[in-house]
Amino acid sequence: MRLALNVFQWLLLILAAPLAHGIIAQAKARLQRRRGASIWRPYADIAKLFRKEDLVPPSASWVFRVTPLVLFGAMASAAAFVPVVQGSALLASRGDFFLFVYLLALGRFFLSLGAMDGGCAFGGMGASREALISSLAEAPLLLGLVAVAILASHADIAGMVGWTLQQNFFKISAVHILAFLSLGMAVLAETGRMPVDNPTTHLELTMIHEGMVLEYSGPSLALVEWASAIKLHAMLALLIALFAPWGMAPHVSAAPLLVALLVYFVKVGALMALLAVIESSVAKLRMYLVPGFIGVASAMSALAVIFATLVKR
Amino acid sequence: MGLVEIAAGKVLSSFSAFLFLTILLLAVARRISTCVLLFSLQSAIIAAEVFAVGFQERLAEAYVVGALVFLIKVVAIPYAFFRLMERLKTVREVKAATTPTQSAFIAVAMIFLSYAAVHSYGQSVHVPADALAAAVALILTGAFLMVSCRKALMQMLGLLVMENGIFLAALVTTFGMPLVIEIGVFFDVLMGLLLMGIFAFRIRDTFEHLDVSRLRRLRG
Amino acid sequence: MQLESGELPLSFLLLMLGAAVPMVLVGSRAKGARLLAAGMLIAACLAGSFVAALGFWRTSSVLMDFTGFTPFPFTLEIDRLSALFLLLICVVAVPVAVFAVPYFEHHCPERRRNWMWIFFSWFLLSMIVVVTASTGFAFLAGWELMTLLSAGLILIEGDSAERRHNVFIYLLMMHVGAAMVVASFFLFLPYSHGLDFASIRAGSAVLPPAIRTLIFLLAFVGFGTKAGIIPLHLWLPRAHPIAPSPVSAIMSGIMLKTAVYGFVRFAFDFLAGGPSWSGYPILVAGAVSGLLGVLYAIGEHDLKRLLAYHSVENIGIIYLGLGTSLIFLACHAPLWAALALVAALLHTFNHGLFKSLLFLGSGAISHATHTVDLEELGGLQRRMPVTGLTFLIACCSIVGLPLFNGFVSEWLTFRSFLAGAALMGTKAQVVLPLMVGVLALIGGLAAACFIKVFGVAFLGRPRSTEAEHAIEAPLAMRGGMTFLAAACLLIGILPGVLLKPLVALAQGLVPGAGVPPETLAITRVLPWIAVAVIGIAGAAALAAALGRVRRIVPAWGCGLPTLTSRMQYTSTAFSKPIRFVFSAVYRPDRKIVRLPADQPYFPVSISYSSVRTTSYEKSLYRPFANLFVAAANQLRRLQTGNIQVYLLYIFLTLISLLIFLRFRG
Amino acid sequence: MILLLPLVIALLAPALILTLRDPRAATRAAMFAGGLEAVSLFAIVWQVHTHGALEAGRYFRADGLSSIFLFNIAFISSLVLVYASGYLSHTGEGRFSSPRWFYALVFLFLFTMISVCLSADLGLMWIMMEGTTLASALLVGFYNTKGAVEAGWKYLVVCTVGIAFALFGTIVLYLAAFKAGMNPAAALDWVSLMDAVSRKGFDPHLLKLAFVFVMVGYGTKIGLVPMHSWLPDAHAEAPTPISALLSAVLLNCAVYALLRYVAIVSRGVGPAFPHTLLLIFGLASMMAAGLLILVQRNLKRLMAYSSIEHMGIIAVGLGLGSPLALFGALLHIFNHSVVKSLLFFSAGNVRQNFDTLRMESISGMAQTLPQTSAALVIGCVAIAGLPPFSLFVSEFAILSAAFSEGHYLVAGIFLAVLSIVLGGLAHHLFHLLGGEPKRLPARAKLSPSEYTVMGIAALCLLFFGARIPYLFDALLNQAAAVLR
Residues of D numbered 210-239 whose beta carbons fall under 8 angstroms of chain B's beta carbons: which are they? Predict the structure, then answer.
């Protein structure tokens, strides 16, 4: 039963990921007083791409072709770490957040290689910029998680969520606020959202993530897009699970689970709205201001770790 | 025994006055030939001293040694020096690095120093202080000559003066070393002088001077 | 020589290593003789792996005693720690030797090939002596020989002023380091009966604290010089690139590890943790080496220099683990000390595997293209598929991606940092968790660097005609690389193979330690992750491949007719953003020259150069060396050539001695 | 009576050789005499080993300590004579500088050195020590060039002055014995002195005074800083076989002479005083020579400074005084002799091939003179104290003694100097061996005689690095027993 629930959570994270993209796009459109496309459009896009032919540059090797698969595999596996409606997940108690973060890194590593394999300038440019941002963003991401882990005295995600669930919402500490902020910033950098990267840009010189996937088409592009949607969704879900898990089902039975699912939708919806607000109100940072942005996140996360150890004392 | 010792000391100390005089003169002498003569005189004094010791201590060996000193140091070596100077046809000046006045003061200082040294080290050795001081002063003078004079011949002479001092020290402290050893030492001194003579010729032949302070090709 | 039961394999190994030599000497110019020598060497290494495996998994202690023969006690003994390193040496040496057979034939001048093999086998033997020695004499003899023979191998390879200078720096630094190692051994002497390890262990119990501290610091700096921690790394990026690739592989993959072995032997086995603060300098050295090492690596475009800097980085990671372990030891937390030690030792082993694989890959590249300059490479994946795949596996391993072996050790290191948070009320409680950030930064930058390396060298279009006409390496080379790559994957997915005996080893070195649960956790979870990632990727492949057409079309060229290789990002361009952000580390001296100068907007050529100006040699070592040379010149001046002055020296010596005697004697 | 055999041979040989005008006949005669000499010396060593100390009259005696030096003399002089036979084949006839004069003087030189080691009387020892200077001065000036004459003069004068102080020291010791009531005839015999010095209560003040003078005197001959000034000149300007003899035998003989005094004085006033002086001079020599090696420009001067450094090491070993240190120091004496001969032989080949020893005008030797280069590399590795060569063993022994005695400062300086020296040697060696050859050698291959001696020296270094033969070990222990 629990296994089925875990598989359900996992499928939810994967299958609803394009929907999350669609909702954010819709929210942004509304904020910008546009009508916007349907929230289901990402599904249509993916379906359409799956039907198209796969164009491969002449210089590309098998690395180029394998990259979308590895990326999708890594992201989908990472999604198995994140609890959604109850305090555990498929791999949440076996693996820890380091594994989660490094699975994301695995995907990113291959995506960058795939970009370099295209043999044109934009792939290299995108990979180079991504390399800078992601190498810097890894530290605040891990440190933020470490702060929470120290408070929870658990390194596995299930344990961390379980600990938070037992806490009173109103007794939340400064560590949580700092960690949440730094993690949020790191998530923005990791998933390539504003103000670090503009996911909807079509101006080559400002592209990072888009630059990397420029040479992909057809099913490969579909997998890449889907994988990045999963990544965003999983990270949002992780933020929720770590900092606002309240409402998750305490035990496996139908009614609490349904409530938990609804509560989850509300919470993730709120986060998406927040994301949309940020994306509509903030300009993209210049490339060389990004390290400063990540630096702030790193400082906050380090502070969070220090506070966490002080709190534990 | 004590009486004999005191008597020997008196005899020996009276000689040491003459030795100090030769030291002073050696320091201020400007010509090599003068120095050689002074060395000869000095050796004669020492030879006399050897005989005195031999007489007082009734040591037959001492007479042999005295005769050797006389023959080698008073006669043979000065003669060889004069021959050498003739053959080398070199400038006769000493060419010291110090002026005569300075040298004189240094010589006086060295005599004082040797008295001080004998005073400090010679306490336990019950020998006449004057004679031992003279020996030490001779060693110091020899060293001074070798350091201050630029002529190869003067370095040889300085070495001989040092050797005189060591010999005298042995004489006044222990009435001389065993005869075989003394003869061996004399032989070494002679051979050393011979070799230095050979080298003096070679220096003159290859460098066309005898100024050892200008032998500075090899350094560092 | 005393023979005991059970050491037959070891004697076999030693004999084989020695026996390779006369074969080559006698065999003159014939290739067969060299093949025979290589074969014997490989057989010896296989036998050695067997002995080591027995020692490592079963702890069958093996002893060889030459004491009756040699002037000082010379015994070899394999305990678990030795067995681990012996295993590393033999396991890495086999594929490297296989790789070296065609490599030496192609790259060494005819008359030097035999010497190459002779030195190569002696070099391996010296390292085996180092890790199995159980007396100070044997250890130090092996230690010095190791340096000497590796320098010989570098010098045989070729001759140029730069090479000589680099070998000079290598030799000198190694000697100074060895002097400290010598001192740290001998400092035990007044308190132990001899220099055999058992007496040293016994003697260390009665060491006064000051001597204990001194030994620890000397061992730290002495072994650190060999390991290449910053700022003692000066020789490392100089010596590795100029060695033949198989030798670089051994030097970087194994030789550096002997320093780790020595340090672990001293800090854990002999000193049982050293002074209470001992972990912190190690931790700082590890962090500094890791960060700066990877940053310097990113700035390089000579592949072998880049890899050499990555050795610095990885040694940094190993030292982070060792430092953490020492901190835990000082805080009386044996379980976590064991965890951190396991992490460090596993990373040592892993680094041996993937770094030698990387250097072999660079050898295959230079074999195919005659260059290791990244700017001249590109598109090799299509031309050298096996080299490319194995190199990619090595890249993933060194970056620490899950499913590859580097991840396991880095993960264990992360977890030991995290465990530090539970050390209530100590400095470590704050410091260790923060190290997570440092290691994360190191890992992120390493990933950036290897995206650059693999992307520029193997992917995209070739940047030179040599790269365009590259052909795959010969079978032996491919075989060697494949073996190592398989080992990386095996440990990456099933780390339990090594972890179990490693935990036992750590328990031996850290008294009172249990089995760290983390080691069990990672063993359990990784196969699942592998199944998940590969399964999902496979499913996605099926889904994407169903009835779809794949068509090869030129990439869009912004309207230009074709894309050329000059339009690709170069290695320098790729690393530009990171170098820009960390310009404080590089202090680059950038120059842009536009020609002709009077037409800035219509240049015929633009050349850009960016040189790192931070130089340890200039700012740290030069002044030191100059000091000695200045002192020597002063002394030289005292030797004036004037005999009167010489005599004066003698007189003054005598007089000062007399004065000394008068007043003090 | 066997004791007198090598002395007689060494005295008769020059007379025989000087009568032979044909250089080849002279060479053959010298080889023959050298062979006899070596055999007779080995016979003495064997006799001492099996029967204990030998005596011949009042003036000659050999015990364990002398036998190890005699062994050294026999081994090195054989190597040198064989090497010289090839080296001198091109030397013409001149006043005191023809092959027959060369061999005659070499045998005289050997005579004096063997006598030093066989003397039972400190006075005789002094005479023979001075004799070594006299016998070798002409050999140092053998080439009669400006440099050779200058070096010869400096050698003669500086050593004679130094030795004069040793005579003074001997006299002071004699005085002490005399005052303590010893029979004057026996008062210079080292056995009776060693016996009497602890029993009869010599004046400690006089003993110390004597030792200071002897230390400075024989220290000059050993080449300890700051009395070393003659050494680089003489070694660099002498013909190569003589450089080897000076460095590998003469310096050791001076060490032997000093050791006799150390043994006596240690019994009289305790070992602390002589050992302190040895340590001070040893360290000064190591440091100064180690630094000076860095800035040398002449290959043989470089090696001369290395000799000074190694004499410093030996002095430090003797100054530490523990059994292990003595073992190391005595072993180091032999090891250093072998390696230094090897190095000087290689330097001789360099000189014969390029007609210069200035290191800046030589390069690319690895290509042009591969065999000599190999010898040079082996020699430099060995002399830097690296395994697998024997100097590693002896330095290991001295260092471990320094540490176990708690002389941390000494040990620290020792280690630092070793690194400095390695740096200097590697720097010079790379320059000589690497790069493009500046000129072509006269003859690239070694002659069989050169090949043989250099091979023997190298193998000896290697062998002693792995194992000290039983006989040699026994000799070392006998020698060390004398000093304790």
Answer: 232-233, 236-237
Q: Which residues of C touch A68 (CB under 8 A)?
A: 540, 544
**Do C54 and C3 reside in the same domain of the chain?**
yes
Question: Could you tell me where the DSSP H helices lie in D52-121?
Answer: 64-87, 99-118
Q: Which C-chain residues 166-225 have CB contacts (< 8 A) with chain D?
A: 167-168, 171-172, 175-176, 179-180, 182-183, 186-187, 189-190, 195
Are A225 and A45 in contact, with CB atoms under 8 Å apart?
A: yes
Cα–Cα distance between D344 and D370 in angstroms, integer? 16
Which of C474, C500, C534 is the last residue before a domain boundary?
A: C534
C-beta of residue D197 within 8 angstroms of C-beta of residue D129: no
Whether residue A250 has a cis bond before it, omega within 30° of 0:
no
Residue C39 domain flag = yes
- Under DSSP, the state recorded for A55 is E
Residues C377 and C335 in one domain: yes
Q: Dihedral (C-alpha) C447, C452, C453, C459: value to the nearest 10 degrees?
A: 120
3 state SS of D388: coil
Fill in the amino acid letter for C647. Answer: L
Q: Dump the DSSP string for C70-90.
A: SSS--EEEE-HHHHHHHHHHH
Residue C98 domain-assigned (yes or no)? yes
Amino acid at D176: A
Give a yes or no: residue C180 inside a domain: yes
CA angle at D54 for the pair D49 and D59, rounded to the nearest 5° = 145
Shared domain check, C601 and C499: no
**Domain boundaries of chain A, sorted by first residue:** 2-312
C-alpha dist (Å) from residue D281 to C67, D221, D222, D264, D391: 35, 13, 11, 19, 21
CA B71 → CA B64, B154, B157, B185, distances in Å? Answer: 10, 21, 17, 15
Beta bridge partners of C75: C65
Domain count, chain C: 4
Instruction: Report residue C136 as tokens.
Output: 């100070």
C partners (3+ CB pairs within 8 A) are: A, B, D
The predicted model gives C188-214 an average pLDDT of 91
C393 with C436, same domain?
A: yes
Instruction: Give D189's strand partners.
Output: D121
C38, part of any domain: yes
3-state secondary structure of D61: strand
The answer to whether the pTM exceeds 0.90 is: yes
Computed on alpha carbons and rounded to an integer, the radius of gyration of chain D in Å comes to 21
CB D159 within 8 A of CB D221: yes
The two counts, helices (H) then strands (E), for chain A are: 12, 1
ipTM associated with this complex = 0.92
* Whether the Cβ atoms of residue A115 and residue A123 lie closer than 8 Å to each other: yes
For residue A187, the one-letter residue type is V
Tell whether the model's pLDDT for residue B79 goes beyond 50.
Answer: yes
CA distances from B30 to B41, B101, B156, D156 (A): 17, 12, 16, 25
Q: Looking at the structure, do residues C134 and C1 belong to the same domain, yes or no? A: yes
3-class secondary-structure state, position C472? coil
pLDDT at C2 over 50: no
Written as one letter, the residue type at A302 is A
> What's the domain range around C610?
579-614
A310–chain C nearest CA distance, Å:
8
Q: Which chains touch A (3 or more CB pairs under 8 A)?
A: C
Question: Quick check: C351 and C310 in contact, CB under 8 A?
Answer: no
Q: What percent of chain D has pLDDT over 70?
A: 99
As a whole number, mean pLDDT of residues D120-135 equals 94
Tokens 């590859």 sit on residue: C404
- Together in a domain, C211 and C333: no
How far is residue C71's CA from residue D219's CA, in Å, rounded to a whole number?
Answer: 30
C-alpha dihedral sign at D464, D470, D472, D475: positive
**Mean per-residue pLDDT, C400-404:** 94
- Do C336 and C470 belong together in one domain? yes
